[in-house]
Amino acid sequence: MAAPLTEPADGRVRVLALSGNIVAEISCTTYPKECFLHNLTEQVAAQLQWPCARLELLLEGRAATEEDFTSGGDRDLQVIRKPLLTTYSRDILFAIRTGRVQFLKERLAAGQDPNSQLAWEALPLHEAVSRQQSDAVELLLAARADTGLLDLEGQTTLNLAVEGGAVELIDQLLAARADINKADKWERSPLNMVASTRDREMLLRLLEAQANVDQPDAKGDTPLHKAVSLCQVAMVEELLRARANVNRTNRRDQTPLDAAIVVAGTHAAQVVRILVRGGGDKDRMNGSGDTPLIAAIRHKSLAPLCALIDCSADLEKTDRDGATPLYAAAWVGFSGALTLLAGAVEVDKVNDCGDTALHAAAWQGHVDAVEQLVVARAIISAPS
User: Fold this and answer.
1) Are 326 and 379 contained in the same domain?
2) Contact 115/123 with Cβ under 8 angstroms?
3) How far apart are CA 199 and CA 205, in angstroms?
4) What total number of domains does the chain contain?
5) Which of 12, 53, 58, 238 is most buried (most C-beta within 10 Å)?
6) Final residue of a domain: which of 46, 81, 116?
């Protein structure tokens, strides 16, 4: 038996170190006293530096009671650690949540299931990843924790690591053969989530691991759509370098170029140029019947509009109603677009209803647009 941890001054109690679930043995001389067991438990807890509520004293293999100490005499008791909660799974969670790596190691060595989950409780591996405890993650993976399970919120372990920006944990999970393309309940893959974070290092790590570069989420948005929507130039370039489909549409029939048109960022024009240079169809008609040029005009997005013109977008291509970009600019009163287009296109071209851009500006009451078109020699007397 090991040497005493402590020897109280009165000599009544000695606590001896053991291993496993039995953490100590007590040899004590007892005498009748109210709450003797309670006081004894508190004394042992203080010596072991363990919460009193987590300890239980056993006498002859059963839980000791106050009645066992109604008469004086010598007693040999064992001290065990009680689970903080009621199950092995929660015992593991307790170890993870409190950072007790050694305790977690002991519980896993004792055969506790690293994949067990109670109602409304977290999975152990998910809990360790979300708390970024790499030591706990390593122990759980060694105990064959399943990297492919979804937690109660529908999250995957890799997505949690991505969300926390934990590159080290991503490496650990990938080394344990976690599915690089496993999606959560919103159908977001790890790469799809990374594209929403601005973390280029993490993006490169997943691309190196052969992540599906075109895997869409529930809305049909690919990682390229996500990177474009955040106006992330470097990430857009990396995804195109990895051969992302630049013309793939989402469920709203938007290509990444369509998404770039409505971005209100300082690098929006640069993103548009990168996409067109990478093969983006600059004249494709979207689900609303608009070309990228007309969509930029309707949203009054001047920087993307200028970029499209620089990339030789068709200035005369009409929408599904036969309206030209100039007509669209007159309709919304977009002075900047009228300035760019009026001297480069036919100002009196009619739509499918026989109306010109001047008709559109007049109907909408855009005085400045009317003046611009008149200066551009639009026919004032043209019939509708």
Assistant:
1) yes
2) yes
3) 10
4) 3
5) 238
6) 81
State the virtual CA torsion across 262, 264, 265, 270 in degrees, nearest 10. 30
**H-run or E-run covering 104:** helix 101-109
- Confidence band (pLDDT; 50, 70, 90) for 99? confident
Please count the CA atoms within 13 angstroms of the CA of 209 that sit on its side-chain side.
23
| Cα 9 to Cα 26: distance, rounded to the nearest angstrom | 15
Alpha-carbon gap, residue 226 to 247, rounded angstroms: 14
Residues 71 and 123 in one domain: no
Q: Which of 27, 51, 81 is the last residue of a domain?
A: 81
Q: Tell me, yes or no, whether 70 and 96 share the same domain.
A: no
> Would you say residue 118 has pLDDT above 70?
no
The dihedrals phi and psi of 113, each to the nearest 5 degrees, come to -80, 120
Continuous segment of H or E residues that includes residue 102: helix 101-109
Give 196-212 pLDDT, tens digit per residue.
888 999 999 999 999 99
Mean pLDDT lowest for which of 96-100, 199-203, 209-213, 371-375? Answer: 96-100
Structural domain including 168 reads: 85-179
Residue 88 has pLDDT above 70, yes or no: no
Instruction: Classify residue 79 as exposed, middle or buried by CB count within 10 Å of its CB (0-12, 13-18, 19+).
Output: buried
Query: Which position has the token pair 């919304």?
Result: 332
- Tokens, residue 215: 């895997």
293 contacts 317 by C-beta, under 8 angstroms? yes
Site of tokens 């409190």? 98
Do 89 and 175 reside in the same domain of the chain?
yes
Contact (Cβ atoms closer than 8 angstroms) between residue 236 and residue 230:
no
Q: For 178-198, give one letter per residue: b (16+ CB within 10 A) or e.
A: bebebbbeeebbbbbbbbbbe
- Compute the average pLDDT of residues 274-294: 95
**Taking residues 353-362, what's their average pLDDT?**
93
Residues 121 and 165 in one domain: yes
Tell me: do 94 and 158 sit in the same domain: yes
Residue type, 147: T
pLDDT over 50 at 3, yes or no: no
Name the burial class of residue 27, with classes exposed (0-12), middle (13-18) and buried (19+) by CB atoms within 10 angstroms of its CB: middle
Contacts with 49 (C-beta within 8 Å, 6 or more apart), sequence order: none
**CA torsion through residues 42, 46, 47, 48, sign:** positive
